[in-house]
């Protein structure tokens, strides 16, 4: 009864007040959705008193037009802007003249001596003008497009053959068995980018063929060979990053260490970056623009490559909580399930709620389909910032084998 008396005036619920739910029609069905506090401020005045129902038992408000469909909320002052905000008519008002009439010759001579400056009329449609003033909001994540194939085969696979005369008998020391150039491009999942160096087609086809058939790579093809002049792990390379092999839960991981002598090194995030894929680890050495941990993490996020981060226990925000709170995951359906619009809407709402948890940043770091489903719901800046202060209240720390981190 006390709750009902407190809500009789239909005042906007405060921060610690009742929960608010909105009922929306989707494909003929009414879907009940919980509003956050900002959404409550935006939606509350869009409903009349009769369209708001209070549940005193659960301390909840329900907002639905269907409660009183014949009523409409009072117009807000802002809603009346369109009634008077329109292009002003600046055409001169021609009233009756009190001067004596003039002859046409006098008018012609006066106009020739002092031409009248015409004031341009404002455009009838301001959409194009506003588009130049207000930029469109940038999406949460700007996913990187496909790179040119020549950059991919070097950065990802370490193909370093120069544009030189190619003799397969001397390089391969066996008969060629590589497919044609178009088949090689399909193997690399790139058939559209421009490839200008035709003399590199045969060497690259043989390089890919060695990878696919698990054959030894010629020394002159790959920078992973110690005898190659551009050996990626050699001391003479310009990369400031280096790799260290670690053991974690029975898996071997590569820790990517950046240059500790760089400027503002002490301002870098207090975590280290690890990857399991050796190709990804070597790629972080080949890309010269990945000069610090944030740039490395941003590259891995935008390309959907899996990675991990670790921090020393002395650098964690708070001590580990005794009780771990578990959030229910979004759930799943069997492969034969045919979802409708209601299923999709329910899944997206549940997924977004789940991704608001502190440890949901791990979904972006997971790579693959999990990365793709979560990258539009989580700001990548949250991931690059490192663990939050609430992370140990929702999960437990894991430790590396024979390591003090």
- Secondary-structure element order, N to C: HEEHEEHHHHHHHEEEHHEHHHHH
Please state the overall shape, judged from the principal axes of the Cα atoms. Answer: elongated
Low-confidence stretches: 83-100, 134-142
Derived structural class? alpha+beta
Number of helices: 16
- Assembly classification: single chain
How many domains comprise the coordinates? 3
Span between termini? 55 Å
Look at the structure and give the mean pLDDT.
75
Notes on the protein architecture:
The chain is an alpha+beta fold and 405 residues long. The protein folds into 3 domains: 2-67, no CATH class; 139-237, no CATH class; 242-405, no CATH class. Helices cover 29% and strands 11% of the residues. It contains 16 helices and 8 strands. The chain has helices at 2-6, 37-43, 81-84, 104-113, 127-133, 149-155, 168-172, 181-187, 201-212, 278-286, 293-303, 341-354, 361-365, 368-374, 380-384, 391-394, and strands at 19-26, 29-34, 52-55, 60-63, 242-248, 251-257, 272-275, 308-310. It has a 4-stranded mixed β-sheet. It is elongated and about 90 Å long.
């Amino acid at each position: 009864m006390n709750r009902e008396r407190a809500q009789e005036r239909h005042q906007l619920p405060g921060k610690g007040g009742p929960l608010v739910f909105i009922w929306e029609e989707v494909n003929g069905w009414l879907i009940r959705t919980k509003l956050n506090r900002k959404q409550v401020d935006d939606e509350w005045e869009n409903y009349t008193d009769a369209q708001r129902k209070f549940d005193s038992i659960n301390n909840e408000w329900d907002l639905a037009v269907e409660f009183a469909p014949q009523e409409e909320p009072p117009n807000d002052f802002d809603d009346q802007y369109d009634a008077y905000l329109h292009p002003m008519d600046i055409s001169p008002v021609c009233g009756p003249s009190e001067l004596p009439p003039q002859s046409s010759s006098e008018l012609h001579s006066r106009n020739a001596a002092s031409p009248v400056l015409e004031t341009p009329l404002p455009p009838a449609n301001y959409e194009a003008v506003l588009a130049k003033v207000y930029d469109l909001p940038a999406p949460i994540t700007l996913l990187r497009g496909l790179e040119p194939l020549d950059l991919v085969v070097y950065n990802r696979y370490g193909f370093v053959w120069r544009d030189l005369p190619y003799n397969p008998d001397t390089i391969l020391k066996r008969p060629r068995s590589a497919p044609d150039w178009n088949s090689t491009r399909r193997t690399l999942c790139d058939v559209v980018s421009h490839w200008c160096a035709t003399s590199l087609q045969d060497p690259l086809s043989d390089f890919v063929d060695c990878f696919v058939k698990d054959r030894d790579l010629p020394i002159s093809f790959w920078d992973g060979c110690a005898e190659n002049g551009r050996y990626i792990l050699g001391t003479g390379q310009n990369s400031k990053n280096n790799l260290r092999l670690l053991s974690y839960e029975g898996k071997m991981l590569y820790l990517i260490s950046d240059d500790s002598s760089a400027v503002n090194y002490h301002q870098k995030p207090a975590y280290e970056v690890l990857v399991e894929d050796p190709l990804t680890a070597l790629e972080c050495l080949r890309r010269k623009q990945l000069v610090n941990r944030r740039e490395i993490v941003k590259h891995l996020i935008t390309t959907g490559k899996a990675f991990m981060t670790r921090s020393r226990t002395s650098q964690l925000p708070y001590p580990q909580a005794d009780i771990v709170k578990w959030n229910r995951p979004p759930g799943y359906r069997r492969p034969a399930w045919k979802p409708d619009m209601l299923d999709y809407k329910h899944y997206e709402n549940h997924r977004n709620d789940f991704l608001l948890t502190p440890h949901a940043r791990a979904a972006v770091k997971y790579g693959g389909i999990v990365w793709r489903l979560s990258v539009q719901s989580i700001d990548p800046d949250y991931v690059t910032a490192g663990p939050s202060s609430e992370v140990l209240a929702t999960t437990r720390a894991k430790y590396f084998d024979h390591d003090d981190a």
